[in-house]
């Protein structure tokens, strides 16, 4: 159902370097990496649109010039898009302040801020309505995770008021963490110092709390994933293809796999577990691919096995090779008989000779 939020504006933070996703992000910024057949951001844009967002300002920095050719003026998404670039990276808070120059919202209006690397099934409309009803300075989406020791945590009082931003600790006081989607009252954005490097997580939010302003938490347990690491990135693509998270931007029906135009999958190959097969990619007879992202023009030769991995554009995984929990960079060639696993990453263009050898990050 179409939302009735009136003309909500958003800022999308897409300027990070995506270091944890190297080498995938050496040539393509994280928000543009193909995920379930389309650039990652397409899923976020379509979801934001479905909640009534009409205008989005992209806060770009790293590889800034690649965003506008990918999304243009946004008409294809029913959105109006604007691109603002930082001369030097300003951090999350500085980027929001800088991009706000392009907003048309008035001082009391809510503005949605989205991290450009989050897949979330949460109800954005509910979050915005809670923010407006309570006239908060900022309302943060908080997600409840099973293991909060891996994150900083965000405790709230019984009224949902955020009481602190706590660093990572072995004994967290709550399982609620910052989920990377905020509603700011426009005037609060304008109070962030201009042209300075500012972190919302380390400076803006703790500062608002210390000065007694109302910072609210909107907590839920719907689907949520930060695709910042290779394992999480592959999981996100897999979950979208399998239909664990609905996305209006999926280029085909959900199922065991999704194949883009010109992909050639042998009837004697096994492709499953939410694999995305890029345009013109080839999977030969006897190959097995599970839960993976195969980029455009890559080749998986006969008898190779690829599981929970990313194979870059134009890369080749030769006959009989085993690839598990690995990232193969664009145009790399993994010679026959290799075994790559446990997070190993092959840089773009590298050619591993044919041999019976084991590459693993934990051996
Ligand atoms: P890593 O380098 O792997 O940590 O990834 P990242 O660069 O994306 O950093 P992080 O995950 O902490 O960033 C959270 C969000 O803020 C992402 O959507 C980034 O694109 C964005 N971001 C981080 N720093 C900046 C910045 O200086 N400018 C802009 N415009 N966006 C940023």
Structural description of this entry:
Keywords: Transferase. Residues 256-339 form the Mannose-1-phosphate guanyltransferase C-terminal domain. The strands form six sheets. This protein has a seven-stranded mixed β-sheet with strand order 5-4-1-6-9-8-10. Strands 12-15-18-21-24-27 form a six-stranded parallel β-sheet, with helices on one face. The protein has a six-stranded parallel β-sheet with strand order 13-16-19-22-25-28, with no helix packed on it. It is of the alpha/beta class and 363 residues long. Strand 4, helix 3 (67-71) and strand 5 (80-85) form a beta-alpha-beta unit. The protein has two domains: 8-226, Spore Coat Polysaccharide Biosynthesis Protein SpsA, Chain A (Alpha-Beta Complex), CATH 3.90.550; 256-352, 3 Solenoid (UDP N-Acetylglucosamine Acyltransferase, domain 1), CATH 2.160.10.10. It is built from eight helices and 29 strands. The mean pLDDT is 93. Bound molecules: guanosine-5'-triphosphate (GTP). Residues 13-21, 30, 59-61, 86, 89-92, 95, 115-117, 228 line the site of guanosine-5'-triphosphate (GTP).
CATH fold-type name of the largest domain: Spore Coat Polysaccharide Biosynthesis Protein SpsA, Chain A
The main sheet comes to: 7 strands, mixed
What amount of the residues lies in strands? 25-35%
**CATH superfamily placement of the largest domain:** Spore Coat Polysaccharide Biosynthesis Protein SpsA, Chain A
Number of helices: 8
Per DSSP E runs of 2 or more residues, the count of β-strands stands at: 29
What ranges have pLDDT less than 50 throughout 5 or more consecutive residues? none
Distance between the termini: 52 Å
Highest CATH level, the class of the largest domain: Alpha Beta
Strand order of the largest sheet: 5-4-1-6-9-8-10
Rounded to the nearest angstrom, the radius of gyration is: 21 Å
- What compounds are bound to the protein? guanosine-5'-triphosphate
State the helicity in percent bands. 10-25%
Structural class based on helices, strands and sheet pairing = alpha/beta
For the record, the count of structural domains works out to 2
Mean pLDDT: 93
Please give the CATH architecture of the largest domain: Alpha-Beta Complex
In one word, what is the shape?
elongated
Pfam families: GMPPB_C, NTP_transferase
InterPro entries: GMPPB_C (IPR056729), Mannose-1P_guanyltransferase (IPR050486), NTP_transferase_dom (IPR005835), Nucleotide-diphossugar_trans (IPR029044)
Keywords: Transferase
Family: Belongs to the transferase hexapeptide repeat family.
